[in-house]
Amino acid sequence: MLLSLITLIILYPMIYMILNSLRSTKEIMLFPTQLWPSGKFQWTNYADAFQIGKVSVYFLNSVTVTGATLFFQLIVVTLAAYSLGKWKPPGYRILFFLFLATLMITSEMTTIPVFLMLRQFDLLNTHQGLILAYIGGGIGMAIYLIKNFVDTLPKEMEEAAKIDGAGLLRIFWSIDLPLIVPVLAVVSIMSFVGVWSEFFWALITISEDKLKTLPLGLLNFQSQYNTNYGVLLAGLTIVTLPSMLVYLLFSRYFIEGMTAGSIKG
């Protein structure tokens, strides 16, 4: 009962935002505490947000940036963490320590150097520069999580595969990679939520309106619809719902990934 009450309290702002995004501004002003629309659902709020408010452009930009970031980041951190945890190349302890050290470096310390680096390579005001900044920002924690998970993998199947003549890459692709899917899901969810809702780096690196991501584009959107609450709430719902859906769809993998280390160890 208590958990249900806490869950309702946490979800109430989200429920209020979604339901009020389907109401007219007049109805919201007259009955601000009412949840369910008294008349027809105002689906035109979403149409106005996508077409007039350019949310469709911002949404596509966010999908592009987030998708590319996840794709390349997962490749980098999976291979790096697996090699550190399984292959253990010379100096792997120092490399792992350096990755861990990045967790103690705040974003304020890296903002100016990374910004100057992007400007040096003419990557400001491009999606490529934004993607590189996002990839670098999430590597440390991802490698830490995956490497610790790799350390717990059983070795019996690998030894049997070696006897059958399987090489390192074959063992990685056919045996170990399917086993680390839960922790990869954890990393993916964390990275998706962080990149999808990220605002600061998009603000300082993107200036062209056609390149803006959803959180940044909503600045213009909010100033344009600051009195049209239905359309404004529709825009906010478009930003928020993907993160919730990703977590709900992959929550099973998220829980398995977070608990697998303690269960296997």
TrEMBL record:
Protein's membrane topology: Multi-pass membrane protein
GO cellular component: plasma membrane
Subcellular location: Cell membrane
Protein name from the UniProt record: ABC transporter permease
Entry similarity comment: Belongs to the binding-protein-dependent transport system permease family.
Family matches, as InterPro entries: MetI-like, MetI-like_sf
Provenance organism: Cohnella abietis
Predominant location: membrane
Keyword terms of this UniProt record: Cell membrane, Membrane, Transmembrane, Transmembrane helix, Transport
ABC transmembrane type-1 domain location: 59-250
Transmembrane regions listed in the UniProt entry: 58-82, 94-118, 130-150, 171-193, 229-250
An annotated GO BP: transmembrane transport
